[in-house]
Amino acid sequence: MYPEEYYYSKDHEWIKVENGEGTVGITDFAQKQLGDVVYVETPKKGTQLAFHQSLGVIESVKAVSDVYAPVSGEVVAVNEKLEESPELVNEDPHGKGWIIRIKLKDKSELDKLMSVSDYEKFTQSQEE
Amino acid sequence: MKKTRLNERHKELGGKMIDFFGWEMPVEFSGVISEHLAVRNKAGLFDVSHMGEVTVKGNQALDCVQYLTPNDASRLKAGKVQYTALTTEKGTFVDDMLVYCLEEGTSYLMIPNASNQERDYAWVRRHGENFDVEVQNRSSDYTQLALQGPQALKILNPLIDVELEEIKPFRFRFGKIQGENVLVSRTGYTGEDGFELYTLSYQPQKIWDLILEKGESEGLIPVGLGARDTLRMEAFLMLYGNDIDETTSVLEARLGWLVKFKKGNFLGREALLKEKEQGVKRKIVGFELIDRGIARPHYPVYIGDDKVSEVTSGSYSPYLKKSIGMTYLPVDYTEVGTEFEIGIRNRKVKAKVVPIPFYKRKK
């Protein structure tokens, strides 16, 4: 279910790091909690994000949820497909439903995140 | 938390449970959008047992209902239903509700909102002291189901010993499903054709299961409170606590059609008459967003730099695929096409007044 090579945050974001850049999205657990996603508000390219700063908002029919930067850095790409097709977040949260790409400022911040096995345990503890 | 008799069923069906004014209720089963569209295109089954049931019986039951509600309850014959309100002396809402006439003149059934049932019961009891009536809160005894959508009649007709074609909108009959007694009315809160079923049965699960099983081939699915809210919003039906409350008058909510001044005295009559003569200062409107975004309850509403009100209801509309909502605007700004702004987080988003209801079913 959850890709091995990703890092995971307690706020249910994932980040996949390649060549100093990280692709960020929300996890399957998060999209299930939210329900049908109907709107995604993304930051502009070039935005500087601090660790755990709100990078945008995901809205389902019933809920509004902040998305936090799992690491600090500069936004280098935004998934523009989400404007027309926010449902990608539900349909493929770990792939086509990615939200932004970020240029990592400090790789050591990844140590604050969870591995896939820790994240799986974490989500189990969150389901009653 | 309070539970309906169908609570276990909802969990078995994968319902996502939430706390709704102290009731553990399903907000969704398969997803708000698919449930919403099932009701518009086929059919959906709702457990709405959290709604209240208050009976007013006795020699002066009609007089009591007439005094407490602005609509004309004397027009109700046995078997008829009326949309009305409980009004304060100021002509504002204690609640909005359906009233069922069980026996003309002497027996009525009120259906308060879940969030209001204790308060409404206390209100009706208190005012009922001046009449020869007995007021009872039967809310925990009743199970209430709503079967809504274009296929509702086709699904329910073979299961009940009543010819449903003969029940016109805002009418009801008594019948049996699976041997259990039910009151069935052609009413709802979705903007679609459909029925609401009330039963005192200890095993309403039998009724729920049978309808779901027999309706499956017609596309029937269980529906939660999430889609109930988006469906009623598209149909521009009020939600107490959002769109109407003790600070909003019946006329401001554009429900003047249910105020019958000629029927005689009722709570709030003087205030409403005065308001009618002077004209309301603000009115509820339906709007859609011109810019991207979703308006949510309590977001500020601006005309120019002035904050004039707040969004009362707002959502993504699954059927219209637009961002829609409701708010009160000064009367000069309520004409269709009028533009204004809504504060969404740190920006102002353009909106415009549109015709209501947002959605009207084809007859």
Using brief descriptors, characterize the structure shown:
heterodimer, A: 128 residues, alpha+beta, OB fold (Dihydrolipoamide Acetyltransferase, E2P), 3-stranded antiparallel β-sheet, globular, B: 363 residues, Gyrase A, domain 2, Alpha-Beta Plaits, Elongation Factor Tu (Ef-tu), domain 3, 3 domains, 6-stranded mixed β-sheet, 6-stranded antiparallel barrel
Helix content estimate of chain B: 10-25%
Average pLDDT metric of chain B: 97
H/E element order of chain B? HEEHEEHEEEHEEHEEEHEHHEEEEEE
Number of helices of chain B: 8
CATH class division of chain A: Mainly Beta
Largest sheet of chain A: 6 strands, antiparallel
Question: Can you offer a commentary on this structure?
Answer:
The complex is a heterodimer of chains A (128) and B (363). Chain A has 128 residues and is α+β, with helices and mostly antiparallel strands. Helix content of chain A is 20%, strand content 34%. Chain A contains four helices and nine strands, in the order βββαβββββααβα. In chain A, the strands form two sheets. Chain A has a six-stranded antiparallel β-sheet. The longest helix of chain A is centred in the last third of the chain and has 11 residues, at 116-126. The model of chain A has no long low-confidence stretch (mean pLDDT 96). Chain B has 363 residues and is an alpha+beta fold. Chains A and B meet through strand 4 and strand 6 of A and helix 2 and helix 7 of B.
